[in-house]
Design goal:
Blueprint lengths: L5 H11 L6 H13 L2 H17 E3 L6 E3 L4 H4 L4 E8 L2 H10 L4 E5 L17 H10 L4 E4 L5 H14 L5 E4 L15 H9 L2 E2 L1
Parallel strand pairs: 3-4, 3-5, 5-6
Antiparallel strand pairs: 1-2, 6-7
Helix pairs in contact: 1-2, 5-8
This protein binds zinc ion.
């Protein structure tokens, strides 16, 4: 027999499906949501509803945004000669928090991972090549994660872009091989951008 009432049990199940949340944590969260003021709990529900309804990918860089263009692509204060390529929107957020990069971004929405059946055509690489062809970039910075797949993706893209008269660099390896941008601290990321190397 289920030890919780239907609605509570349903919420525990849903929370328990989130990454990093085990059964015990899911129960703790569910009871927390029952205890806090109703407005606070419903604000969470509303935030979830809004990200699903209103948030989409920027039509230029594939960052997350509300509307057609993200705030970075809309800004007049960015250096439009530098383009930084990242795997995921959360990597872009980490780089933005470091405040060490003033250029534009391109989010791949993944990395080439043959073992998982993810090829170049499932990423935003075609759009990237079009952007580089039509833009006036002088430097493209590869900021894929320093993993086997991230490096492979970076190599694939730098080969594609080699026909254009631009410098291709990659982040310095202050970030330990295998570690992920998402978890690197601000100073490490700033160092990695400042010390970027020719690819
Ligand atoms: Zn954008």
């Amino acid at each position: 027999m289920d030890k919780h009432a239907g609605a509570v049990s349903e919420l525990v199940d849903q929370l328990g499906r989130l990454p990093g949340i085990g059964r015990k944590s899911a129960e703790r969260l569910a009871f927390h949501l029952l205890r806090i003021p109703e407005g606070e709990a419903l604000a969470l529900a509303e935030a979830i509803r809004r990200i699903r309804n209103d948030v989409r990918y920027c039509s230029v860089c594939f960052n997350l945004c509300e509307g057609d263009l993200c705030s970075i692509c809309r800004s007049d204060n960015r250096d439009s000669t530098r383009l930084c390529i990242v795997e995921q929107p959360r990597d872009l957020m980490s780089l933005e928090q470091s405040q060490a990069f003033q250029g534009l971004y391109h989010v791949l929405l993944g990395r080439i991972a043959p073992l998982e059946g993810i090829g170049p055509d499932q990423l935003t690489i075609d759009a990237l090549v079009d952007r580089v062809r039509e833009g006036n970039f002088s430097e493209v910075i590869m900021a894929t994660n320093p993993t086997v797949e991230g490096d492979g993706t970076s190599l694939y893209i730098s080969n594609l872009l080699s026909e254009f008269p631009i410098q291709i660099t990659r982040l310095a390896r202050g970030i330990t091989a295998g570690s992920i941008l998402e978890y690197a601290n601000r100073e490490m990321i700033a160092d990695a951008i400042t010390g970027r190397q020719k690819l």
